[in-house]
Protein backbone atom coordinates (compact mmCIF):
# COMPACT_ATOMS: atom_id res chain seq x y z
CA UNK A 1 0.00 0.00 0.00
CA UNK A 2 1.15 3.54 -0.70
CA UNK A 3 3.46 4.98 1.92
CA UNK A 4 2.61 8.46 3.16
CA UNK A 5 4.95 11.28 4.06
CA UNK A 6 3.89 14.33 6.03
CA UNK A 7 5.68 16.96 8.09
CA UNK A 8 6.53 15.94 11.63
CA UNK A 9 5.27 19.17 13.14
CA UNK A 10 3.67 22.51 12.34
CA UNK A 11 2.93 25.62 14.37
CA UNK A 12 0.14 28.07 13.73
CA UNK A 13 -1.71 30.86 15.45
CA UNK A 14 -5.33 31.05 16.41
CA UNK A 15 -7.61 32.17 13.61
CA UNK A 16 -5.25 31.18 10.82
CA UNK A 17 -5.90 28.64 8.11
CA UNK A 18 -3.66 25.60 8.36
CA UNK A 19 -2.75 23.40 5.44
CA UNK A 20 -1.07 20.05 6.04
CA UNK A 21 0.23 18.31 2.94
CA UNK A 22 0.74 14.59 2.63
CA UNK A 23 2.64 12.79 -0.13
CA UNK A 24 1.52 9.38 -1.37
CA UNK A 25 3.40 8.84 -4.60
CA UNK A 26 2.45 5.19 -5.02
CA UNK A 27 -1.28 5.56 -4.54
CA UNK A 28 -3.32 3.00 -6.47
CA UNK A 29 -6.59 3.32 -8.35
CA UNK A 30 -8.64 1.75 -5.54
CA UNK A 31 -7.09 3.85 -2.78
CA UNK A 32 -8.80 6.61 -0.87
CA UNK A 33 -7.16 9.28 1.24
CA UNK A 34 -8.28 9.57 4.83
CA UNK A 35 -7.28 11.94 7.60
CA UNK A 36 -7.59 11.35 11.31
CA UNK A 37 -7.06 13.63 14.30
CA UNK A 38 -5.75 12.38 17.62
CA UNK A 39 -5.62 14.18 20.95
CA UNK A 40 -3.39 12.87 23.76
CA UNK A 41 -4.79 9.76 25.44
CA UNK A 42 -7.69 9.51 23.01
CA UNK A 43 -8.41 7.33 20.02
CA UNK A 44 -8.06 8.83 16.54
CA UNK A 45 -11.09 10.68 15.23
CA UNK A 46 -12.10 10.48 11.58
CA UNK A 47 -11.91 13.90 9.94
CA UNK A 48 -12.38 13.53 6.21
CA UNK A 49 -11.95 11.17 3.32
CA UNK A 50 -11.67 11.75 -0.40
CA UNK A 51 -10.73 10.24 -3.73
CA UNK A 52 -10.06 13.20 -5.99
CA UNK A 53 -10.59 16.95 -6.40
CA UNK A 54 -12.05 18.59 -3.32
CA UNK A 55 -14.08 17.36 -0.40
CA UNK A 56 -15.46 19.62 2.29
CA UNK A 57 -17.30 18.94 5.50
CA UNK A 58 -18.10 20.92 8.61
CA UNK A 59 -14.62 20.41 10.00
CA UNK A 60 -12.13 20.56 7.13
CA UNK A 61 -11.48 20.50 3.42
CA UNK A 62 -9.41 18.01 1.54
CA UNK A 63 -7.73 18.96 -1.71
CA UNK A 64 -6.49 16.23 -4.01
CA UNK A 65 -4.79 17.11 -7.32
CA UNK A 66 -5.47 15.22 -10.51
CA UNK A 67 -2.47 12.90 -10.17
CA UNK A 68 -3.52 12.06 -6.56
CA UNK A 69 0.12 11.77 -5.49
CA UNK A 70 -0.46 14.20 -2.68
CA UNK A 71 -3.28 15.68 -0.68
CA UNK A 72 -3.75 18.71 1.52
CA UNK A 73 -5.86 18.89 4.63
CA UNK A 74 -7.10 22.41 5.21
CA UNK A 75 -8.33 23.53 8.61
CA UNK A 76 -10.01 26.94 8.50
CA UNK A 77 -9.50 29.38 11.35
CA UNK A 78 -7.85 27.04 13.82
CA UNK A 79 -8.29 27.40 17.56
CA UNK A 80 -6.21 26.20 20.48
CA UNK A 81 -8.36 23.09 20.68
CA UNK A 82 -7.16 22.02 17.24
CA UNK A 83 -3.74 21.24 18.71
CA UNK A 84 -3.39 17.53 17.98
CA UNK A 85 -1.62 14.97 15.84
CA UNK A 86 -3.04 14.63 12.33
CA UNK A 87 -2.57 11.40 10.43
CA UNK A 88 -2.82 10.98 6.68
CA UNK A 89 -3.65 7.44 5.56
CA UNK A 90 -4.20 5.76 2.24
CA UNK A 91 -6.89 3.12 2.49
CA UNK A 92 -8.07 0.63 -0.07
CA UNK A 93 -11.73 0.05 -0.78
CA UNK A 94 -12.56 -3.32 0.72
CA UNK A 95 -9.05 -3.68 2.10
CA UNK A 96 -8.03 -5.07 5.46
CA UNK A 97 -6.69 -3.24 8.46
CA UNK A 98 -3.18 -4.30 7.54
CA UNK A 99 -3.43 -1.59 4.99
CA UNK A 100 -4.45 1.03 7.52
CA UNK A 101 -0.92 1.92 8.51
CA UNK A 102 -0.32 4.92 10.70
CA UNK A 103 2.79 6.95 10.00
CA UNK A 104 4.28 9.40 12.43
CA UNK A 105 1.60 12.00 11.79
CA UNK A 106 1.91 15.78 12.00
CA UNK A 107 1.87 17.42 15.40
CA UNK A 108 -0.04 20.66 14.94
CA UNK A 109 0.43 23.21 17.69
CA UNK A 110 -1.87 26.20 17.69
CA UNK A 111 -0.48 29.15 19.57
CA UNK A 112 -2.48 32.01 21.11
CA UNK B 1 -23.38 7.75 14.29
CA UNK B 2 -20.39 5.38 14.12
CA UNK B 3 -19.56 5.39 17.81
CA UNK B 4 -17.12 2.91 19.30
CA UNK B 5 -16.75 2.52 23.05
CA UNK B 6 -14.09 0.87 25.17
CA UNK B 7 -14.19 -0.34 28.73
CA UNK B 8 -12.42 0.26 31.00
CA UNK B 9 -10.88 3.59 30.10
CA UNK B 10 -7.95 2.94 32.37
CA UNK B 11 -6.78 0.05 34.49
CA UNK B 12 -3.97 -0.55 36.93
CA UNK B 13 -3.04 -4.11 37.74
CA UNK B 14 -0.32 -6.12 39.36
CA UNK B 15 2.23 -8.01 37.33
CA UNK B 16 1.04 -11.51 36.52
CA UNK B 17 -2.65 -10.76 36.43
CA UNK B 18 -4.91 -10.76 33.37
CA UNK B 19 -6.83 -7.78 32.11
CA UNK B 20 -9.82 -7.79 29.76
CA UNK B 21 -10.66 -4.82 27.57
CA UNK B 22 -14.00 -4.56 25.79
CA UNK B 23 -14.65 -2.82 22.50
CA UNK B 24 -18.20 -2.16 21.34
CA UNK B 25 -19.66 -0.60 18.22
CA UNK B 26 -22.70 1.20 19.60
CA UNK B 27 -24.74 2.12 16.55
CA UNK B 28 -23.49 -0.08 13.76
CA UNK B 29 -22.47 -3.64 13.13
CA UNK B 30 -18.87 -4.52 12.54
CA UNK B 31 -17.78 -7.87 11.22
CA UNK B 32 -14.21 -6.75 11.68
CA UNK B 33 -12.63 -4.96 14.60
CA UNK B 34 -9.01 -4.07 15.09
CA UNK B 35 -6.73 -3.70 18.09
CA UNK B 36 -3.88 -1.22 18.20
CA UNK B 37 -1.25 -0.38 20.76
CA UNK B 38 0.32 3.01 21.18
CA UNK B 39 3.34 3.84 23.32
CA UNK B 40 4.04 7.41 24.46
CA UNK B 41 5.02 9.79 21.67
CA UNK B 42 4.65 7.03 19.10
CA UNK B 43 2.16 6.19 16.41
CA UNK B 44 -0.45 3.46 16.52
CA UNK B 45 0.70 -0.07 15.83
CA UNK B 46 -1.78 -2.66 14.64
CA UNK B 47 -1.75 -5.73 16.86
CA UNK B 48 -4.48 -7.90 15.44
CA UNK B 49 -7.59 -8.09 13.33
CA UNK B 50 -10.65 -9.51 15.03
CA UNK B 51 -13.26 -11.23 12.89
CA UNK B 52 -16.70 -12.10 14.18
CA UNK B 53 -17.08 -15.85 14.53
CA UNK B 54 -13.53 -16.74 13.60
CA UNK B 55 -10.00 -16.59 14.91
CA UNK B 56 -8.16 -13.32 15.08
CA UNK B 57 -5.29 -12.55 12.78
CA UNK B 58 -2.20 -11.31 14.57
CA UNK B 59 0.52 -9.06 13.25
CA UNK B 60 4.07 -10.27 13.21
CA UNK B 61 5.67 -10.10 16.62
CA UNK B 62 2.40 -10.08 18.57
CA UNK B 63 1.98 -13.13 20.80
CA UNK B 64 -1.46 -14.63 20.25
CA UNK B 65 -1.31 -16.57 23.52
CA UNK B 66 -0.60 -13.42 25.45
CA UNK B 67 -3.14 -11.17 23.76
CA UNK B 68 -6.33 -13.19 23.52
CA UNK B 69 -8.98 -11.79 21.24
CA UNK B 70 -12.61 -12.85 21.12
CA UNK B 71 -15.17 -11.41 18.73
CA UNK B 72 -18.38 -12.84 20.08
CA UNK B 73 -20.86 -10.72 18.17
CA UNK B 74 -21.11 -8.08 15.47
CA UNK B 75 -20.81 -5.36 18.10
CA UNK B 76 -18.34 -6.72 20.65
CA UNK B 77 -14.69 -7.68 20.63
CA UNK B 78 -12.55 -8.28 23.70
CA UNK B 79 -8.80 -8.19 24.20
CA UNK B 80 -7.38 -10.02 27.19
CA UNK B 81 -3.82 -9.31 28.20
CA UNK B 82 -2.79 -12.47 30.01
CA UNK B 83 -0.11 -12.53 32.70
CA UNK B 84 0.55 -8.85 32.21
CA UNK B 85 4.00 -7.44 32.83
CA UNK B 86 5.19 -3.84 33.15
CA UNK B 87 6.32 -3.80 29.53
CA UNK B 88 2.70 -4.38 28.51
CA UNK B 89 1.81 -0.99 29.94
CA UNK B 90 0.50 1.00 27.02
CA UNK B 91 -2.51 2.67 25.43
CA UNK B 92 -4.74 0.10 23.74
CA UNK B 93 -7.14 1.31 21.09
CA UNK B 94 -9.74 -0.61 19.18
CA UNK B 95 -11.46 0.31 15.95
CA UNK B 96 -14.36 -1.04 13.98
CA UNK B 97 -15.00 -1.02 10.28
CA UNK B 98 -18.51 -0.13 9.24
CA UNK B 99 -20.11 -2.58 6.83
CA UNK B 100 -20.21 -1.57 3.19
CA UNK B 101 -18.89 1.48 1.45
CA UNK B 102 -15.36 2.77 1.46
CA UNK B 103 -13.01 1.55 4.12
CA UNK B 104 -13.57 3.82 7.10
CA UNK B 105 -12.55 2.83 10.56
CA UNK B 106 -13.96 4.38 13.69
CA UNK B 107 -11.85 4.29 16.80
CA UNK B 108 -12.66 3.82 20.44
CA UNK B 109 -11.43 6.24 23.11
CA UNK B 110 -8.64 3.90 24.17
CA UNK B 111 -7.72 2.05 27.37
CA UNK B 112 -4.72 3.06 29.41
CA UNK B 113 -3.11 -0.02 30.98
CA UNK B 114 -0.54 0.31 33.73
CA UNK B 115 1.05 -2.84 35.04
CA UNK B 116 2.90 -2.48 38.31
Care to describe what's here?
- The complex is a heterodimer of chains A (about 110) and B (about 120).
- With about 110 residues, chain A is mainly β.
- Helix content of chain A is about 0%, strand content about 50%.
- Chain A has strands at about 10-15, 20-25, 30-40, 45-50, 55, 60-65, 70-75, 85-90, 105-110.
- A 5-stranded mixed β-sheet of chain A has the order 1-9-8-3-4, with no helix packed on it.
- Chain A is globular and about 40 Å long.
- In chain B, strand 9 and strand 10 form a beta hairpin.
- The N and C termini of chain B lie far apart (about 35 Å).
- In chain B, the strands form 2 sheets. In chain B, strands 2, 4, 5, 6, 9, 10 and 11 form a 7-stranded mixed β-sheet that branches. A 4-stranded antiparallel β-sheet of chain B has the order 1-3-8-7, with no helix packed on it.
- Chain B is mainly β.
- Classes of the chains: A mainly beta (about 110), B mainly beta (about 120).
- The interface between A and B is medium-sized, with 26 and 27 residues.
What would a concise description of this structure say?
The complex is a heterodimer of chains A (112) and B (116). Chain A has 112 residues and is mainly beta. Chain A contains no helices and 9 strands.
What is the molecular shape of chain B?
globular
Radius of gyration of chain A: 13 Å
Distance separating the two termini of chain B: 37 Å
Name the poorly predicted regions of chain B: none
Which structural class best describes the helix and strand composition of chain B?
mainly beta
Percentage of residues in DSSP E strands of chain A = over 45%
Strand content of chain B: over 45%
Task: Kindly state the percentage of residues in helix of chain B.
Answer: under 10%
Tally of separate helices of chain A: 0
Q: What sequence of helices (H) and strands (E) makes up the elements of chain A?
A: EEEEEEEEE
Q: What fraction, in percent, of the residue positions of chain A are helical?
A: under 10%
Number of helices of chain B: 0
Radius of gyration of chain B: 13 Å
Oligomer: heterodimer
Amino acid sequence: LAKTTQPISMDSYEGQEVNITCSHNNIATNDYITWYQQFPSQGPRFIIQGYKTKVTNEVASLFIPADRKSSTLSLPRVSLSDTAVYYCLVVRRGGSARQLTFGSGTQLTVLP
Amino acid sequence: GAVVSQHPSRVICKSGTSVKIECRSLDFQATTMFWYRQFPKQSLMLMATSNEGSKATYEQGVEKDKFLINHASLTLSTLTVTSAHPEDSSFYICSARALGGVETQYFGPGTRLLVL
